[in-house]
Design goal:
The structure is a homodimer.
Chain A: E1 3-7, H1 16-27, E2 31-36, H2 38-48, E3 54-56, H3 67-73, H4 78-87, E4 93-96, H5 100-111, E5 121-125, E6 131-133, H6 143-161, E7 167-171, H7 182-192, E8 198-203, E9 215-217, H8 220-244, H9 251-268, E10 276-279, E11 284-287, H10 294-309, H11 312-322
Parallel strand pairs in A: 1-2, 1-4, 2-3, 4-11, 6-9, 7-8, 7-9
Antiparallel strand pairs in A: 5-6, 5-10, 10-11
Helix pairs in contact in A: 1-2, 1-10, 3-5, 4-5, 6-7, 6-11
Chain lengths: 327, 327
């Protein structure tokens, strides 16, 4: 069974919520090891009455630290120690709610890139069911990077969704070929030539409503804007709904619908998504929101364990090898 | 009173819906002139029993035509004739549901750019109340362009929302200064130096939920992706809600809430937004969705008339003149 190293010091709610998320995951049958300050973690575990191993790390990286600098200077940072556990084979995956930049740097620095990967990318699931990458690891990209993202995202869709035939779309401002910037026009040509994926051409933001493609590829600046726009819009629609029904005539009907509304809110909850994958490194690394609660951590551990079981890094390497002629 | 030239041949539902939208606007007290094929328009107006003037245009530009080429070759295209009416002073504004690219080209070609404008931009209102630009006129931008967009968007917020003090945000992947690509980092510095606007720094997609800034500035590729992502997400949330309540236990409550749900859908309806402004040209030009119905056309006519009454082009020119030292 996969052992998941949980960075207990990362995120706004560390270590308490993180440890409880890991405890939940262990209770669900996952193998967990915590990485962090033993003096802080031991009392939490003791109070919870569980015996989950802790690997001590004397340092932690904050959200405001410069990722590259912090990884270099804090050799004993929890995220780096967690990555080293995967490197040495003592763990199979890393889960962190800490700085995404630090996790990415630690992963590239400690685990290294898979053969053929020029730029690792961050892949997230949207509520509609599409996986979108890059979500912000690479703000500016070349067409070749986008084509690599297509291959990496397809490998994730294979392991995560059990898909055999994966459809991939290129995010663009129109559906017709020839739309977009030079980047999109070049990427369109490259992606059309990739073996092993089913390239469906350009997709638009409006297509997020119905998961037109299993995988949607874009540069990291655009992906990050898109993810946050979707979050902001979902919240806006909810707020406007609550505003529209905030009259006495509707009180009873709203109470009746409360379970369905809770279910909907839950479905749209980014915490439920199970975190984002860092793809392209030699190992499974899942990062979650800085504001992660125990639910997001336990979901992320399950996500990471699934990816290990599905052999995600090997699948990515195989996909890139198969596409070497195009990339 | 402002005379609005309505391009009767533009959009998927032309001329029927467009003409009826113009008739509605006229019934609401606006001065309208239709531009298009007299042979097609006269029977519609006759059937409606209204006497609204028509200026004949023998050609029309389709959605799939290359905008620049079509404007050059079809000298008598309805959108070009409409722009010439503004140029000659026979009309004060143009409304079109046709190709946005063609409207933009016609506006720049016929009306010309305002002094100091390097790139006209498309500005749209989001349901939260922020105006966002550019929405796709300029896929790749320089920092100076974004700073100009800030000035132009602020002028629109002044006329459209009657604001005196306008807050402007720069769309970015994080709220801290120094975030983003070179483009955003440079634009951040320039925008901070602009006189006459209240620059609040970086804003994120999540901020769309509460209109953190009156004006949000971004490059046209990003703006277009963001607009469509918001549309797609709103539709997704609606669909998921309908799915969640599609059980007999909820039928009655949903029926009770129907008026509130219709009101919410209406509020999120892009048709309601009144169209997008082409800013930076010597005149008022409002474009609407290709799928515009009579409602969006009548709203757009009102929007255009408001902008004329508020002296939008003059306000933009004054803002740019005031900012000349920075831009």
């Amino acid at each position: 069974m996969a052992t998941v190293a949980v960075d207990a010091m990362g995120g706004d709610n560390a270590p308490m919520e993180i440890v409880h998320g890991g405890i939940d995951a262990a209770a669900n049958g996952h193998e967990v090891v915590f990485v962090g300050d033993e003096a802080q973690l031991a009392p939490i575990l003791e109070a919870a009455g569980v015996g989950i191993p802790v690997v001590h790390a004397s340092e932690a990286i904050g959200m405001s630290d410069d990722p590259a600098l912090a990884i270099r200077e804090k050799r004993d940072a929890s995220i780096s120690v967690a990555a080293r556990l995967v490197k040495t084979g003592d763990a199979d995956a890393v889960v962190s709610a800490g700085s995404t930049g630090a996790a990415l740097t630690a992963a590239v620095f400690t685990l290294g890139r898979l053969k053929g990967v020029s730029r690792p990318a961050i892949a997230s699931y949207f509520p509609s069911g599409s996986v979108v990458l890059d979500m912000g690891a690479n703000l500016s990209c070349r067409a070749r990077d986008l084509a690599q993202f297509a291959v990496m995202g397809a490998a994730l869709a294979r392991t995560h969704d059990g898909l055999d035939r994966v459809t991939v779309g290129l995010l663009n401002i129109g559906s017709e070929p020839g739309k977009g910037r030079v980047l999109e026009r070049e990427a369109h040509d490259l992606m059309g030539a990739l073996p092993g994926i089913d390239f469906i051409g350009n997709v638009e933001g409006t297509d997020l409503a119905q998961a037109k493609a299993n995988v949607i590829v874009c540069d990291g600046y655009t992906g990050n804007i898109m993810l946050k726009t979707a979050e902001g819009t979902a919240r806006l629609v909810f707020n406007l709904f609550l505003e529209a029904v905030a009259v006495p005539d509707y009180t009873e009907a709203v109470q009746t619908l409360a379970p369905a509304l809770m279910q909907l809110r839950e479905r749209l909850n980014p915490e439920r998504a199970g975190g984002a994958h860092l793809l392209g490194v030699k190992g499974v690394v899942v990062v979650t929101h800085g504001s992660s609660t125990r639910l997001s951590i336990s979901t992320a551990v399950a996500t990471a364990a699934d990816a290990v079981a599905g052999g995600l890094p090997d699948l990515i390497a195989a996909g890139l090898a198969e596409s070497a002629g195009v990339l």
